C-alpha cells in the first residue's frame, strides 16, 4: 500500500489531490445544502401566504423590496413592504394556496409562483429571491 501511495505522489502533487477531493466531495455538499435551505424557505412562505402572515414573509425581505399589487408597482423598505402586504391580507383571505412553479437557477437566484384563491377572486403570486451576503432574500413580490 505504501508503494502505491509513493507512485501516486510521484504522478500528482498534493495540491492536485486536494483540489480533486474538494471538487468531488465538499463542493457537492455545499450545493445540496443551499437547495435544502431554499426548500425550507419555499415551505415557510407557502404557509405564511395561506395563513395571511405578512410578518413571516417579511422576515425574508431584503432591505428594499419591489412590491406589485395588481397594477401598482413600488419599491419599499422592509417595514413598509410588510405593512402593504399586511393590508392586502386583511382585504383578501386565502381559501386555497398552491405552489405552481419553482425554479432554481444555479443557486444564486430563485423564483416561485403561487396560486392564491379567495372566495371572490384568484391571484398569481410571484416571489423572486436574490442571494445577499450568503443568504436568500425576497427581492420582488408580485400579486396579480
UniProtKB/TrEMBL annotation:
<keyword id="KW-1133">Transmembrane helix</keyword>
<protein>
    <submittedName>
        <fullName>DUF4783 domain-containing protein</fullName>
    </submittedName>
</protein>
<dbReference type="Pfam" id="PF16022">
    <property type="entry name" value="DUF4783"/>
</dbReference>
<dbReference type="InterPro" id="IPR031977">
    <property type="entry name" value="DUF4783"/>
</dbReference>
<keyword id="KW-0472">Membrane</keyword>
<feature type="transmembrane region" description="Helical">
    <location>
        <begin position="12"/>
        <end position="33"/>
    </location>
</feature>
<keyword id="KW-0812">Transmembrane</keyword>
